[in-house]
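Exercise 7. Predict the structure of S-ribosylhomocysteine lyase from Hydrogenispora ethanolica.
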Amino acid sequence: MNSTGNVESFALDHDRVTAPYVRKAKVLAVDPRFPECLISKFDVRFAQPNQKYLPNDALHTLEHLFATFVRQYTDALIDVSPMGCRTGFYFIFAGDREASWVAALVRRALEEVVAFRGGIPGAARKECGNYLEHDLESAQLWAARFLSVPEAELVQIYRG
Ligand SMILES: [Zn+2]
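Solution. The predicted structure, encoded as tokens:
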């Protein structure tokens, strides 16, 4: 075992990738007795690693909006959560999904984010662990940046 252990994302060369992108990170069997029951995990990277990162309020707002919108398009979303480095999100889906399928869902959600007006879902004090830390305007700016890359290019993580 090398120094990255079995953490798949530590083996990714973060200097070589070009954000934004959607990367299929892993497919896992839920239970060895049911090999057809798979889940798949994706990196949805917004900011170029070690160069830029999202402000926490924008990241938090995007998390709430992704959780709301993507679940309207598919029942397969298990989780969407921000990366600790604040450069993007992890998406986990039921089933062995393709990056192009995820890229289309993410783009559709971000188009809704850009057009979104009104209260951020789940952002009342009772519903959220840090309800004051949201910024829709900044989230919309980062959504627009992501959308500036055509869908077909999003799945190529090394480009340019
Ligand atoms: Zn929250």
